Structure formats: C-alpha cells, structure tokens
Amino acid sequence: TYTSGPSAVGASAASSDNTFHLLTGDWKQAAVVLHTYKGKSWTSEPIVTGVYAADTAIALDSKGKPHIAFQDWCTGTVYYGFYDSRGWVVEKVALGVWTESPKVAIALDPKGNPAVAYASGKRILYAAKRKDVWETTDPGSADTNGKGLALFFNKDRNPVILYSQDGGLECVWLDGSAWSSHTYDAGSACHALAAVTNENRLYCFYSLDGVGLRLLTADMSNPANHDIDTVSFGVSAEQIAASFDPSTGKPFVSYFSQDQMSLFFVDSSGGTWATELVEEGIFTTGMAMLCDQNGKKHIFYSATGDIVHVRQP
Predict the structure, then answer these.
(1) Max CA separation in the chain (angstroms)
(2) Structurally, how many domains does the chain consist of?
(3) Which of 92, 276, 277, 288 has its CA 20 to 30 A from that of 136?
(4) Residue 12: pLDDT above 90?
(5) Residue 51 three-state SS
(6) What is the mean pLDDT of residues 19-27?
(7) This prediction's pTM
C-alpha cells in the first residue's frame, strides 16, 4: 500500500489498540504529517506547515497519545509537539541548531514528561521539560557523525542516549547526578543505528565499518554491562529500522544497503539470524518498523516520493 507524497520517514510507534502512528517530513507540502492506521485505511494529518523536517521522532504516552519531535532544516529549530483537548500544541525546544546531518530523538519519562536529544554541530545535547520550561544539558560527549541517535529512560528514570561516531558506537547515561559514557567497538566507524527496549533491556542494531550489521544488548541501568553479536557479516547499511516482538521476546531489524540498492529484513525467529530480501532496485530516504499484536512485522519506507507499507505474510 502507498501513502502518496512524503519524502522522508522519521519514526513510528504502535499503541496498545494496534493503531499505527507514522510521523514523516513531507517536503512537497512543507509540512510535518502524522499518518494513522487502524487496520483498514490510513488517515493523514498535517501537524505543522511551513517547515522542512530533516528528521523526526515519535513516542506514545501511557494513554497511547503521540508525542513528537522534529528539526526544521531551514531554520535549525528543534520542535516538540503533543496532542491535548485543544488539538496539537507545538513548542520550540531550541533555535538555530546547526549540524551537517540533523538527528532528533524523543522519550517520555515514567511521569510522562518529554525529553529530546538532538545533534548540534558535533555534539549531542539533551533537553528535558520541567515545570513547562525546557532545560538543555550537554552530557559532555562529542564527535557524532550524525548517522544515528536514540533516547530512552531506564528503570531508574534516568536518560540513556546512543549515537554513532567515527570512533565507535557511543552511549551516555545519567548515573545519579553525573553523566557516564561508554564506547562500543572503539576505533571503528559506526554508521546508521536503530534501538529498541524491552523493560530495562536495550537492543541496538548498528552498522560497523568493515564488519557488518551488529547487535548490542545492554543493561539500561549500567550500559557498560553488555553483549555484542554480529547479525550479518560484510554488509553496509545506510538506514536501519528496528522493533521488538513481545510474542518471541526478540528484536528484529530491516536495513537499506546503498551498495545493493535493496531493502532487507533480518530476524532470529528460527534460532539463528536469517536475512530476507524485501525489495531491490530502490533508494530509500527513510524507514521505520513495527510489530502488530499478532506478531506480524511491518516495514515503512520512502522511495520515489511515496511511503511504502510492507506487511509480513
């Protein structure tokens, strides 16, 4: 199925009632659009117009309501938005943010308070909303290459940030009152990444230069406590999307390889990691993944200006 028009897929999430929410930057309309699917058809709602979203992110609160973040390419403004009885409320988190490859991520703490991570130059900044005021913190790590970013809260209500850099996959987390950090695969260039969580477990798929597609499994309270496996050797992945299947207790991933101009799906439901070709001869400008209540996987990607929705048989 196709949802016509958008030029980028930013992120996606699924609510408890099996409703899909897909947030995109639509450069044809100069808008950020929320696409919603309830099992039969898609509806599309422009949230903000007059913007050219370079990256988007979405998270659901305890009531299944979406919260969003995105960065406008033209002005460098980082936005946060949520839906209440008045409709969509959109706020400015940061102004004039410049980076070669804009990235944003969003998460809600256990009380439902939003937080946004974003790239500014070579640094990753963390902004949290407290008493209706956005407060920005520099966790103290630098040298992001802008190819991947993720944000979560652990069981201790502390933020955990993952991002790619030319010297490895970096993780920074708030440990009490101070920020700690750990580098995975130090010395090797990390490219695209996609991360998901289950309870206090973190799963991050990432593309490592000269190695292939890797999977980090870490304790979110102490991310230095981790395991790393190679999911697929020798592949390059310019874009990655991932999700988690509650029925199997395992994460799964899809990726786009520019070298092969193809989209692949990878999972370990059979006991070992297996790769399946989804579509070839394409060039994607964004992708995302979901798992529905029946354990079926869904891939969303943008190609030739359209959003394509691929369902697992």
Answers:
(1) 51
(2) 1
(3) 288
(4) no
(5) coil
(6) 89
(7) 0.94
Count CB-CB contacts under 10 A for residue 261.
13
- Taking alpha carbons only, the member of 161, 153, 171 closest to residue 104 is 161
Q: Which of 245, 193, 204 is nearest to 227 (CA)?
A: 204
**Percentage, residues of the chain above pLDDT 70:** 96
Task: Provide CB contacts within 8 A for 155, sequence distance 6+.
Answer: 199, 200, 220, 221
Give CA–CA dist 218/169, Å, rounded: 13
CB-based burial of residue 56 (10 Å sphere; 0-12 exposed, 13-18 middle, 19+ buried)?
buried
Q: Which stretches within the chain are classed as H helix?
A: none
DSSP structural state of residue 185: S
Q: Does residue 11 carry a pLDDT above 80?
A: no
Q: Which of 146, 268, 288 is nearest to 213 (CA)?
A: 268
pLDDT in tens, 206-218: 999 999 999 999 9
Label residue 32 exposed, middle or buried (CB < 10 Å: 0-12, 13-18, 19+). Answer: buried
* Cα-trace Rg, the chain: 18
User: Angle 75-76-80 (CA atoms, 0-180°, nearest 5)?
Assistant: 110
Tens digit of each residue's pLDDT (9 = 90 or more) over 88-142: 999 999 999 988 788 999 999 999 999 999 999 999 999 999 888 999 999 987 7
> Quick one: pLDDT at residue 40?
80
CB 172 within 8 A of CB 125: no
Residue with the larger pLDDT of the pair 98 and 161: 161
Residue 306 amino acid letter: D
CATH number at residue 127: 2.120.10.70
Q: CA nearest 101: which of 81, 73, 127?
A: 73
Domain that holds residue 95: 2-311
- Cα(147)–Cα(171) distance, integer angstroms: 14
